[in-house]
User: Fold these one by one.
Assistant:
Number 1:
Amino acid sequence: MFIGAFAVACSGDASRKEATSTGNSTATLSGGPPGGTLVVLADREPDQLNPLTFQSTPAYQAVHLMFRALARRDSTLSGYAPDLAQAWHLELDSTLILDLRKDVFWDDGKHVTSDDVVFTIDRQRDSLTASPRKSDVAAVVSAVARDSFTVAVKLSRTGLYTVNALLEVVPVPKHLLANIAPTQMSNAPFNRKPVGNGFYKFVNWSPGQNLSLTVNATKPDGRAAIDRIVMRFIPDVSAALTSLLTGEGYLIVKLPANQKATVTKSTAAKVYLGPRVRPAWIAWNSRRPPFDDARVRRALLMAVDRATIAKGLFGDVGEPALSPIPKALREHTPTVTPIPYDPAGASTLLAQAGWKDTNGDGIVDHNGKPLHFEVEFISSDQTRQDVLVAMQSMLRRVGVDMAPRAFESTTWVSHLRSGEFTG
């Protein structure tokens, strides 16, 4: 589960008064009159806003407000509903036919067509683009525009996961990015000033301060109820919480569990729980020793009591992930068996991989080198730091010396992209 806090004032008189004063009777998706500004308090700012190359969670949130995906998760989180693609079907068991909406335009007035979808898929699967979402199109053999609003995607394999991953593709405007070399896509000016086709339009990005969006009032299938969204960047959790409770902001998407009681007691905000669809994770760099040895990677997981960490840090909403695919999603396999917590087994695996404490200092070593490594995290993420400190103690019991290391968001993302990290 994730915990979010919403200021009561956001849905109160201030928003309604502004909506009334506009005199605008345009229908919205919520059924009410449009109006108001939502100030979101974010713990960090996006790395960039290009659907092809962004890396961070804040970027994901902003991108999906400004751009349509081919399809979107439905309210059950286990199926997909039409978005840019109004329908899709398999042809000859190997080709996915995408039938696009004909009434969607980019914010600069250009029609969204099959050419944009084909261009995006081709760039996303191009290794030179280095898209973090290349795996979503890994099964694509080719993508061809049959006409202006029909795309045929030939797949090397089919199945629920393959099709769903492809439907996650977020098309970008070919007419604005075709001249950008794949190797330069992550540096394109577009990434700081995007042109989308979704619920909201880009207005302004003040580095270190805020990101502003305005509603797309001409969205053909209904406009959003809120006129403006401002994402304020406040890395300090305590400062963000103060801003929420004093009415300087209306929403904290991810509330630290240890702050839940404070917000719950307040009359200025409410706490909401929602299903977690993006589990917390650690990526071991398997291109570097000792993580190139599967026995070491498995031993590290076996040495960590994930259930204790989840309950200790998140209370009654905490639970260890069963796999990288959350159980709320259709792709989850109910019969999956997680690797068990087994410190003794972890020690055995480490010994089999050649890691033993030969000098009695409490740290296992191999060829005279102790098993020491750092795990990087974003400095503003107190929850990640708390998780790593708990893991540090658990791993020490099996002779592993792990040290958390904090980095500013941009540096952390850079290390992740370049592979310059251990964990």
Number 2:
Amino acid sequence: AESMVWEGESEMSEGTTIVATVKVDEAAAREALGVAFSDEELYKLVWAEIDKVNDELPYFKKIKRVILRKEDFDVTTSKKIKRFVTENREGTEI
């Protein structure tokens, strides 16, 4: 449904890493996975889509971490995601 890509702290080194925070469209997930899908199936579906994007990107621009959200992002009055709001970067990491 919505996503935000941002620069996060790297867990492996002192550098940074590219992180995507994603709010999944439940209707699209049910259509792709069936009515009773597990979190693991959803994670695999999201990573499959991110792998398609990553195939087109150089290494330093590839998404390395993904965070799934169940609640909507905090947005501005013009419906743009507020990028620097800490709560918009929270969710379940996969």
